Amino acid sequence: MDNRFGFKDLIVCVLLIAMIISFWLGRVQYDRQWDQLRAMNQVLVEQKDQLQQIRQLLANGVQAKVQQTGSESVDENDPFTRLREVRAKPDFSQGDWFVYPFGSTVGKLTPLVSADVYQSVIASQVLESLAVRDPVTLAWKPWIAKSWTVSEDGLTITFELREDVHFSDGVSLTAEDIVFSYDWIMNPKIAAPRDRAYYSKLATVKAEGKYRVVFTLKEAYFKGFDICGGLSVMAKHFYNQFTEEQFNESPGLLFGSGPYKLSVNPKQWKPGTGKVELVRNDQYWGVQPAMDRIVYREITDDTARLVSFRNGELDRYNPTPEQYLALKKDPQLRKQKQFFEYETITGGYRYLAWNQMKEGVPTRFADKRVRRAMTLLTNRQQMAKRLMVGLATPTSSPFHRLGPQANPDVQLWPYDTKQAKALLAEAGFKDRDGDGIIESATGEPFEFKLIYPASSKNYQQMAFYLKDAYARAGIVMEPDPLEWTIMLQRIGQRKFDAMTLGWSGSVEGDPFQIFHSDQVSDGGDNYVHYINKDLDRLIDQARVTMDEDTRMKIWHQVHSILHEDQPYTFLWTSRAVMFVDKRFKNIQRVKTGLNGIEEWYVPRALQHWSE
Amino acid sequence: MLTYIFRRLALMLPTLVGVTAVVFFIMALAPGGFGGSVLNEQGSQNEGEESRRIREYFNRRYGLDQPAIIQYGRWLNQVSPVGFLTSSQIQFTHEQLAEAQTAIDADPLFGSLKGRPGHMLALAEMLAKYQDISPLEATRLLNDALGEASAGENLLKEINPEVEIKSPLTAKTTAALLLLELAGRQRILFARPAVKMPDLGQSLRGRRVTQLLGEAVPITLLLNLITIPIIYSIALVTGILAARYRGRAFDIISGFIMLGLWCLPVIWVGVMLIGYFANTQYWKFFPTDGLHALEADTMRFLPSFGPEGFERGWLLDAAWHLALPILCLTYGGFAVLSKLTRGSILDNISCDYVRTVRAKGVSEHTVLFRHVLRNSLLPLITVSASILPALFVGSVVVENIFSIPGMGKLGVEAAFMKDREVVMGTTLLGGLLGLASELLRDICYAAADPRVSYE
Amino acid sequence: MTEPLLRIEDLAVNFDTPSGVVKAVNGVHLSIYPGQTLGVVGESGCGKSVSALSTLQLVPTPPGCYERGKIWWSAKGEPPVDLLTQTEKQMQSIRGNDIAMIFQEPMTSLNPVYTVGEQILEAILLHQAVGRAQAIEIAVTALEDVGIADARSRLKTYPHQLSGGMRQRVMIAMALACQPKLLLADEPTTALDVTIQAQILELLRELQIKRGMSIMLITHDLGVVAQNADVVAVMYAGRVVEYGSVHDVFDRPQHPYTRGLFDSMPRLGEEKHRLRTIEGNVPDPGNLPSGCPFHPRCRDWQEDVQCAQAVPPLQEVFPRHWAACWHGTGCDQGNASLADIPPVSTTA
Are B181 and B122 in contact (CB under 8 A)? Predict the structure, then answer.
């Protein structure tokens, strides 16, 4: 009669559940042990391979190399001069880990098909390219290639490879791997449309022998060498094991010749563990960096990141400009951390864009005088000081003032309201009815909307500052914050009056896509409808000029024209700020920012983590 | 009862279709359309030509340029176990491909095209899959298309009616265009109905949705399954005590505390907890984020005393990491449930049957726990159905603050990116979960209250 | 002279409400003898239920409190105990065991989530040292005694599956399962329709005779009292105002209130155009008038000064017939016993 669910039954249920849970936990533990065993097995196998190789080498007879001391024959082609200098320092010591926070999770490490911003940071330690830029001189330096020759017309570049480069499993790197890398990118089944578009400028990539690769471009392009020299080399013998679909879908296939490698088998790497670990490649063909391990921790919350940094769990932290000011004065941080403010040529610039043609009708910004007046009304110095807490420097062009393309003779337009008003009057804008707002000849008041990303407080502050500044000249500017996707849509359709945003930079940028008149139609990035035939001609010429000095002179002229025309009001370039734990030595400022972490080290006494 | 359960399960289907349809069309109508943000990842802007090509690629691969209702139909077809095969699911045997390769190698037209011969086979294979013909037939079709300009144009138009052919087609341009157009395109083959595995599709960033869910769901599920018993036990205990000592110190103080807790937003609480309890500047009782410590892989399972002193062990370390997130998830829940319990018990204590029970000579203790409590649990069961979905939503914030890679984060990121497949996958899962928990709740209710019957 | 089974002596129960102290029961004197049915009549709010609840100490004591009075209960062979001074544990052994109570609303008076059988079993297992199987037999017998057919399978039904009359029978079965000596019936038939009412009352009469049980039948229906009670107590504003055998009280009511009640009842065959009422309203128990609580509405003695100033005690106006009125005729016989009043016969 009474089959009610009583208290005793509840106890029985709870015990049953507890038993199931402890069973499952036991399984989990078992799996962990299994994973550890597998990892150990892997290491043993690798060691066995290495022993075999060494034995074989010994059997074949090995010639002992004489160790070259630093100051004698400095090989100009030695890519590791800087590293050798670091190693020669008295307190140099190998060891310790570098813990680096990411603000978002990394879903995929596989090159070419990953859309994560941080993937490139990790990949830069594992994959290598034919040439790299010297951080101080910005000239191209040989890396995997030991030398190269460029043909007269600039369409053919031949690279001679070093013969001692091998991947992290010991297999030699040959010209075949480079050809494979190119073929793999161009394979339409690989989900890498962006890279394919970038490399579509190449006509062919051929191997001639084991250590020579020949690149041919479809047309002369000044960045042609960038494309060839910057190609990340993927290992043919490794990636060949996978079909295209497997490659597209696997999350962790990151394998290369670089100084670091993934701490787990790339085939088994899974995201979602909260961190990505790289261990030092002990078989590295070049000079090894000091850090044993680089750990990238995924911490999505800003507060958590800062607290973690204070606790000493992270070794570096990038604050926002306001945070930076506050944190600089913090006594605890001053004691334990070092901070850096540095310029990067690749940092990019912020701008105000004036749309010259909206829905088929020329706007008031089509008049050069109006644009220049707007620039004169924008007090860039003060904005850099106040809004960017002094961490920005006003700029007059899309080229970074420390880079080679900037024309040193061009002076910034000053902040001059009187001249601005005069220019506006000249263009026909005067306050005709005494209400404080200037009107055109037809009585239309000078009003416009400025669109900017709604999610950024910094942009919002900027918009309000500008609103105030322009109001003094009788111009009504209405800030119009937009959600990011909507903003992109409007920009794409050219449905805006004015906007503010930033462009990222590179060592030598190509102003073609932003300022050339070819790019005015849909899909191009010249969305202010700026047309200047002289500029077009200069840009076209520069793009096919292979000689650097001649080309730079052309860029200087481009700079002057942009300065005259002010299609954008170029605002400023920002300095980056970073906090690093005090124990890291040899952090230097270079043209591209700070030197890479492979040049940093921690003296033995200060080392924190150990293997 | 069994028929009732079957009926409910059957009714889940149209409900799920409805839910997913609504979500789908809202996403489609939102500015930016599908994958709006994926194309412009992290706000970077691309060169004009490049961005157009990228957009086209995405359109082809995921069918983003088709009208929303067709995309929805496709997704339904993909997800349902009974549907039609798509062209990408066709597999050719080695022999078929070898056959086609031989035909390609033998044909002078293919050989004369400068470029990679391997691409010809790939092209033939893609065309064969798209048209649902054998690779050998595809090579013949290709041959015609590459040899004759008008045949090539017709084939291109067949694949993409909107393709613009600006200049007269040579074999080389035809081949390149075909390659471009076919790459990634999928077609539903209505001639091949099949019973197949439901496929949740691929995220616009390339990973399979099932994999993504498989990684994220266990974590969120773990968090929630630990949270729910905690919420209920604390709520029951405090509710009963508050009702028992109504009007006295415990009742008033606990009522005040519960109200206060309910008002505190999780965002603020989470950050405060990290700032004070995970910070060496104040008290460092807990870790700042994540699910495991950095050295967790090398730890033993159970806590132990090693040479360096107390070592936490993997299990305890995981529990230690979970402490703060679970605290954030539970406090809101038990605040509400506690008040609910208290109210329900007070309601029941003044009922007539309690008077009858007392008149039988039953002790006060038995009155409370055997009679009143049984009746008071009924509203709690009603509420329980909404707890699991609410926790899933609530865990978005908690997962973000504590950097736990769970479903909440997955869903929100996908929603921002308007990543079609992932959003639909999470909606489906969320819908299923919601409906399942409601069914469970109704069953529990029928079991608990004999007045309720579903016959 | 036999001892009364239950004797309520000057019971007063107050309730603390936000609007002041309410004197729900304000000096009640009652006695019940073994085998007797006492009918307690009165309007709503006159304190009948509270008096019955006080017997079992079931008045909720945060708002309520037993102001004064004693309730003497004499178990067989032992000296009478004051129920108001018993501890909770002692009361728990009396409730359902020696004294049982049934309530007004059978629809809500049973716990909806347990079967009928479980609820009866609970009472049995609590008070009798029997095993489960035997308890089930007792329950079956109890249900059969109250006239429920197919009792064994009925044990597994839930209250909501039964009609009102059946539920009341179940309640009675539950109350009588442990053979109590006194049954307090608080308006057991008010919520039922007339035919069922008759059945239930007949059942109660049967059981009383069979078991020799006493019943305190609380009701507001004079007809029910006439048919089923031996002795009647009329209550008004928390006091007993008339007390005596049914025969006596109904024949010659002594208290103006009782008279008013009888006058207002329609009689068969009488032609009436308008029913007679007692003018005025029942006084607010938080704000009782001074002196006799009925005097503002008393037709006969409204102007009397004594009635307005002094509260009349229960006086024996006729042999074994008490009334609380200054103007009832006196009689020198003391507290005569009502024990030898024969119970009303079952053949009606």
Answer: no
Residues of each domain in chain B carrying CATH 1.10.3720.10: 209-448
Per-residue confidence at A66, pLDDT binned at 50, 70, 90?
A: low
Q: Cα distance from C156 to chain A (closest Cα, Å)?
A: 7
CA of A102, closest CA in chain C: separation in Å?
A: 56
Of A187, A222, A255, which residue constitutes the final position of a domain? A255
CATH entry 3.30.70.260 includes domain B209-448:
no
pLDDT at residue C331, rounded to an integer: 43
- Record: contact A272-B216, CB cut-off 8 A: yes
Q: Where in the sequence is the domain holding A369, given as residue range(s)?
A: 349-574
Task: CATH number of the domain at A462, please.
Answer: 3.10.105.10
Strand order from edge to edge, sheet including C64-73: C20-32, C6-17, C64-73, C81-82
* ipTM (interface predicted TM): 0.85
pLDDT tens digits, one per residue of A506-536: 788 888 878 888 888 766 788 888 999 999 9
pLDDT in tens, A275-312: 899 999 888 888 888 888 899 988 888 888 888 888 88
The total of structural domains in chain A comes to 4
Q: Is residue A610 part of a domain?
A: yes
**Whole-number Å distance between alpha carbons of A476 and A444:** 12
Supply the pTM of this predicted model.
0.74
- C160 in contact with chain B, both atoms CB, cutoff 8 A: yes
Pairwise CB contact (< 8 Å): A311 & B58: no
Amino acid, res. C102: I
The alpha-helical segments, DSSP class H, found in A208-274 are 224-229, 236-239, 244-249
Are both A562 and A584 inside the same structural domain? no
Q: Which chains touch B (3 or more CB pairs under 8 A)?
A: A, C
Q: Are residues A131 and A249 in the same domain?
A: yes
A382 domain-assigned: yes
Within 295-314 of C, beta carbons closer than 8 Å to B belong to: none
Q: What residues form DSSP beta bridges with C186?
A: C218
Amino acid at C26: N
- In this structure, which amino acid lies at residue B215? E
Q: Which two tokens stand for residue B44?
A: 């970077």
Task: Judge: B48–A270 Cβ closer than 8 Å, yes or no.
Answer: no
Q: Are residues A409 and A557 in the same domain?
A: yes
Q: Which residues of A touch C (CB under 8 A)?
A: 1-2, 4
Residues A318 and A433 in one domain: no
Gap from A163 CA to chain B (nearest CA, Å): 28
Tokens for A81, please give them.
């001069």
Residue B117's pLDDT band (cuts 50, 70, 90)? low
Task: Say whether both A398 and A500 belong to one domain.
Answer: yes
